Structures are given as structure tokens and as C-alpha cells.
Amino acid sequence: MNINALNRLESLLEQLAVDAKRVDAENKQQKSHYYLQDKPVFDEKLFPIVSANFIAYVKYAQERVQHLKKLLASNHNEFSDALMTQLEEQILSLITALKSNSSRHHDSEYQLNRRKRLSAQKQAKVYQKAVKSITMPSHQLHAKLAETHGFERRLEEMLRIKQEQLQSSKNQDTNVLQMEVLTLHQRLGRCRKAISDIEKQIEMSEKMR
């Protein structure tokens, strides 16, 4: 390896830097890029840095060229030959990746669109469920409300019993009973929220008549 070979690589990297900046700017304009922005362009075995931008890898390679020049100047050829081989592999990978950037983003666009479709389908199911609950016959809603009120009363009774047990409990039972009381409070809270939701559905159903 000689200094002329390094100078040629340096010139090539200057051109790659121009290309990398252009491609990075184009990528930022694409919606699909957000799906790739947290993913490194190259494997960490090839480049010991992590970035979604090509220019970061070009700059890393340029720094390696300068390091190689210093090794050559100090006659450390045993290190410089191995680094030169690695640098050539990195530059070749950069060229290949820049050329295949469009197809990489095309694949990402497909995944992004697939995510949007799945999200839309999920949202549609939520709307369908909401519409179904609103359009449920009034008598069914009232029956559901009565059933939930019954569940609320049972929970209140269970909570009352547990609280009485807690007041008269021995020390070793206190922690267990406290957890049971807390769990019942949470269940009672969810039950009362369900009652509130059903009451709103009944009100909306009556307005739609």
C-alpha cells in the first residue's frame, strides 16, 4: 500500500460525501424514512458507529484514511495493511448502499403502509363496537345497566366484609387483607365506570329516537 492509493480513496470519499448528503436530504422528505430513522444503515461489525444517515459513515471512513496516512508516515505497515483492507470493504459497502437506497425505502414504504392498514382496521373495529353499543335496543341497555348495578352491589358487600375483617385482623393477616381491599376498590371503580358508560349510551340512544 502507498500514499497514492490512499489519496485515490480520499478523492472517492469526497464524492461519496456529496452523494451521501444528497441522499440523506432526499430520505428526510420521504414518509417511509421515519420507519428507518432508528435503524443503522450498516451492521456494527462493518462500521462501529450507529446512524441512519449515510454521511456519518462517510465521515468515519474519511477519519480512517487520515489515521492510515499517519500509520504510513510512521512505517507501521503491519497495522496499515489490515486497516486498508477493512477501509476498502467499508467504501464498497457505502457505494452499494447508496445505489440501493431507493429499494430500501420502497420496502420501508410497504411496511409503513401495512402498519397504516392494520391501524385503520383496528380503528374501524373500535368504531363498529361503539356504533353497535349506541344502536343497541333501549331495553337491552337498561337490562345491562341493571345487571351491572347488581354487580356493583355485590362488590360493595364484598368490600364491606373485607374491611371489617381488616379492622379485626391480626398483624400477620393485615397485608393480605389490605391487598384484597385494594383489589376490590379497583374492581368497584371499573364497575362504576361501566355504569357511567352504559348510562351515556342510554342517553344517546334516546336522543337518536
Key terms:
mainly alpha; 0% strand; elongated; 7 helices; 209 residues; single chain
Global mean pLDDT: 78
| SSE run | HHHHHHH
Radius of gyration from the CA trace?
Answer: 33 Å
What proportion of the residues form beta strands (DSSP E)? under 5%
The oligomeric state is single chain
How many beta-strand segments? 0
End-to-end gap: 87 Å
Class inferred from helices and paired strands: mainly alpha
Helix content: over 70%
> What are the segments in which pLDDT stays under 50 over at least 5 consecutive residues?
none
Task: Give the count of structural domains.
Answer: 2
Overall, the morphology is elongated
Largest sheet: none
Number of helices: 7
Mind explaining what this structure looks like?
- The chain has seven helices and no strands.
- Helix 1 packs antiparallel against helix 3 (54-73), helix 1 runs parallel beside helix 4 (77-99) and helix 6 packs antiparallel against helix 7.
- The protein folds into two domains: 3-116; 135-207.
- 83% of the residues lie in helices and 0% in strands.
- By secondary structure, the protein is mostly helical.
- The longest helix has 37 residues, at 171-207.
- It has helices spanning 3-28, 33-36, 54-73, 77-99, 101-134, 138-167, 171-207.
Short characterization:
The chain is mainly α and 209 residues long. 83% of the residues lie in helices and 0% in strands. The protein contains 7 helices and no strands.
